């Protein structure tokens, strides 16, 4: 096993209210082509839909920014994209389970909101999408958080990560139907690539960097930093999330050990990220700072070789966890699928391939162009989180989308925090406060009782699931 690490995933969801049945799901978000015709009933705006979605949350939490008893944060930011940030996990499998628990929570909220709409006679159905771009061209994100040990050369570590993140999309991209300027459309690896503008920056929205360098570790700042990665596509398939986080974790282990990858720096990163997304062969070379030219495929092969070489030479290979082995195996196989131009090697595991196959079959059956609105709707349905309308449940049931979690694990994670991290303390505190109807304030590091005494505990160690001070706080809450 490599050194223990804290992980968290934040997902912003797309939201829309589709007109009543018969007009196809989620037409608004599917694009102008499919938008309302004359005489169609008016549907509520995304802002209003988000308010319906959060009505119950605001009732019990008195805010649209709350922490849940499973340790996660649920909130509505500006721009009306509901966001779910998983609790701190210390294992990739656990993280995938917690990410899925977030989807289930939001799906249940959507069902409740749709009941409210029906009760109030508002026509339409709210849909939530785990994707990264809506029909108006707005982009929203899926951020990955990795705890790293603080080193003086954080910047150098970031520099080494940039070419990795720029090329990682050939494995972990969600697949994207991209309109072409000359008309028609082509299939690209990533939804997010066209929206990124900076390699590194401390602002997330204005300049949209690959890595956010704002120094906010949510932990002891003398020891740690939080690597806040903005660049990734939201993942639908559990195996894609697993690979996305797992490969990054292994590379970080190597970088934290002082290994550098200066020779792989790119001459023009922001140009490369787009070119690589648009090249489904993954073989078109991009220019490196050294003057050398390498394709995304070659670069990812190089990253994989260096990571496995590092694990071997430090004696860590034999100690890898089962999930880490799966990550390395899928990383290798994903690259082989590209090298041999044979997506069937990963067609149940990597989003771009699962979705690509789905769209191809549908187009062949109905003789449709890639830019046909019906294809856009199917593509969108891939990202619909609804167990009822979304395609993921059906695809998984038919063996067309792999899973690594069980329904039981996910159900458990809706109400229970990860047991091995700080999240456990937060979860217990929130649960106790809810049961006793006590007023508290919580964030990633603070637990506070809002009474005359204003007792507060600061949790600077995200690895620690136990704390005597919290035991006392819980006792005070229950007194
Ligand atoms: N010390 C830590 N190291 C790594 N990840 C952490 C740490 N503490 C918390 N996290 C994770 O980081 C994520 C923080 O989510 P949050 O949405 O609050 O992000 P933020 O970047 O602080 O704020 P915002 O989204 O409002 O800009 C969560 O998924 C959480 O589990
Ligand atoms: Mg966030």
TrEMBL record:
<keyword id="KW-0479">Metal-binding</keyword>
<feature type="binding site">
    <location>
        <position position="444"/>
    </location>
    <ligand>
        <name>ATP</name>
    </ligand>
</feature>
<feature type="binding site">
    <location>
        <position position="73"/>
    </location>
    <ligand>
        <name>ATP</name>
    </ligand>
</feature>
<keyword id="KW-0833">Ubl conjugation pathway</keyword>
<dbReference type="GO" id="GO:0005524">
    <property type="term" value="F:ATP binding"/>
</dbReference>
<dbReference type="InterPro" id="IPR022279">
    <property type="entry name" value="Pup_ligase"/>
</dbReference>
<dbReference type="GO" id="GO:0010498">
    <property type="term" value="P:proteasomal protein catabolic process"/>
</dbReference>
<comment type="pathway">
    <text>Protein modification; protein pupylation.</text>
</comment>
<dbReference type="GO" id="GO:0016879">
    <property type="term" value="F:ligase activity, forming carbon-nitrogen bonds"/>
</dbReference>
<dbReference type="GO" id="GO:0019941">
    <property type="term" value="P:modification-dependent protein catabolic process"/>
</dbReference>
<comment type="function">
    <text>Catalyzes the covalent attachment of the prokaryotic ubiquitin-like protein modifier Pup to the proteasomal substrate proteins, thereby targeting them for proteasomal degradation. This tagging system is termed pupylation. The ligation reaction involves the side-chain carboxylate of the C-terminal glutamate of Pup and the side-chain amino group of a substrate lysine.</text>
</comment>
<feature type="binding site">
    <location>
        <position position="10"/>
    </location>
    <ligand>
        <name>Mg(2+)</name>
    </ligand>
</feature>
<feature type="binding site">
    <location>
        <position position="83"/>
    </location>
    <ligand>
        <name>Mg(2+)</name>
    </ligand>
</feature>
<keyword id="KW-0647">Proteasome</keyword>
<dbReference type="Pfam" id="PF03136">
    <property type="entry name" value="Pup_ligase"/>
</dbReference>
<dbReference type="GO" id="GO:0000287">
    <property type="term" value="F:magnesium ion binding"/>
</dbReference>
<feature type="active site" description="Proton acceptor">
    <location>
        <position position="77"/>
    </location>
</feature>
<keyword id="KW-0436">Ligase</keyword>
<comment type="pathway">
    <text>Protein degradation; proteasomal Pup-dependent pathway.</text>
</comment>
<dbReference type="GO" id="GO:0019787">
    <property type="term" value="F:ubiquitin-like protein transferase activity"/>
</dbReference>
<feature type="binding site">
    <location>
        <position position="75"/>
    </location>
    <ligand>
        <name>Mg(2+)</name>
    </ligand>
</feature>
<dbReference type="InterPro" id="IPR004347">
    <property type="entry name" value="Pup_ligase/deamidase"/>
</dbReference>
<keyword id="KW-0067">ATP-binding</keyword>
<protein>
    <recommendedName>
        <fullName>Pup--protein ligase</fullName>
        <ecNumber>6.3.1.19</ecNumber>
    </recommendedName>
</protein>
<keyword id="KW-0460">Magnesium</keyword>
<dbReference type="GO" id="GO:0000502">
    <property type="term" value="C:proteasome complex"/>
</dbReference>
<dbReference type="GO" id="GO:0070490">
    <property type="term" value="P:protein pupylation"/>
</dbReference>
<comment type="similarity">
    <text>Belongs to the Pup ligase/Pup deamidase family. Pup-conjugating enzyme subfamily.</text>
</comment>
<feature type="binding site">
    <location>
        <position position="86"/>
    </location>
    <ligand>
        <name>ATP</name>
    </ligand>
</feature>
<keyword id="KW-0547">Nucleotide-binding</keyword>
């Amino acid at each position: 096993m490599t050194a223990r690490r804290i992980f968290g995933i934040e997902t912003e969801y797309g939201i829309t209210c589709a007109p009543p049945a018969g007009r196809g799901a989620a037409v608004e978000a599917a694009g102008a082509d499919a938008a309302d015709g004359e005489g169609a009933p008016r549907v509520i705006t995304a802002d209003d839909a988000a308010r319906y979605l959060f009505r119950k949350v605001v009732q019990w939490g008195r805010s649209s920014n709350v922490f849940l008893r499973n340790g996660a944060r649920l909130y509505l930011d500006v721009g009306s994209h509901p966001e779910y940030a998983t609790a701190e996990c210390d294992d990739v499998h656990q993280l995938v389970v917690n990410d899925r628990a977030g989807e289930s929570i939001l799906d249940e909220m959507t069902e409740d909101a749709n009941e409210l709409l029906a009760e109030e006679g508002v026509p339409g159905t709210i849909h939530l999408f785990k994707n990264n771009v809506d029909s108006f061209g707005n982009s929203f994100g899926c951020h990955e958080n990795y705890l790293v040990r603080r080193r003086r050369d954080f910047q150098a570590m970031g520099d080494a990560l940039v070419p990795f993140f720029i090329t990682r999309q050939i494995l972990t991209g969600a697949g994207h139907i991209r309109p072409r300027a000359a008309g028609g459309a082509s299939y690209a690896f990533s939804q997010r690539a066209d929206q990124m503008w900076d390699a590194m920056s401390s602002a997330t929205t204005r300049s949209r960097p690959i890595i956010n360098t704002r120094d906010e570790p949510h932990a002891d700042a003398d020891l740690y930093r939080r690597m806040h990665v903005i660049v990734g596509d939201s993942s639908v398939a559990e195996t894609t999330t697993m690979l996305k986080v797992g490969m990054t974790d292994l590379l970080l282990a190597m970088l934290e050990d002082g290994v550098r990858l200066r020779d792989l720096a790119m001459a023009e990163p922001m140009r490369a990220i787009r070119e690589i997304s648009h090249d489904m062969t993954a073989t078109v070379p991009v220019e490196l700072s050294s003057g050398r030219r390498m394709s995304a495929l070659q670069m990812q092969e190089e990253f994989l070789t260096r990571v496995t070489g590092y694990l071997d030479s430090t004696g860590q290979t034999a100690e890898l966890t089962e999930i880490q082995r799966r990550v390395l195996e899928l990383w290798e196989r994903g690259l082989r699928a590209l090298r041999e131009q044979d997506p069937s090697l990963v067609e149940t595991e990597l989003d771009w391939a699962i979705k690509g196959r789905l769209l191809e079959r549908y187009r062949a059956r109905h003789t449709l162009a890639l830019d046909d609105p019906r294809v856009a709707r199917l593509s969108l349905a891939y990202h619909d989180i609804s167990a009822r309308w979304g395609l993921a449940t059906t695809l998984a049931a038919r063996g067309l989308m792999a899973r690594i979690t069980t329904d039981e694990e996910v159900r458990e994670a809706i109400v229970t925090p990860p047991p091995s991290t700080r999240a456990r303390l937060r979860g217990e505190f929130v649960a106790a406060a809810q049961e006793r109807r006590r007023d508290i304030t919580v964030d990633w590091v603070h637990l506070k009782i809002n009474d005359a005494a204003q007792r507060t505990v600061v949790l600077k160690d995200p690895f620690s699931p136990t704390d005597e001070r919290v035991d006392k706080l819980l006792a005070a809450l229950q007194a």
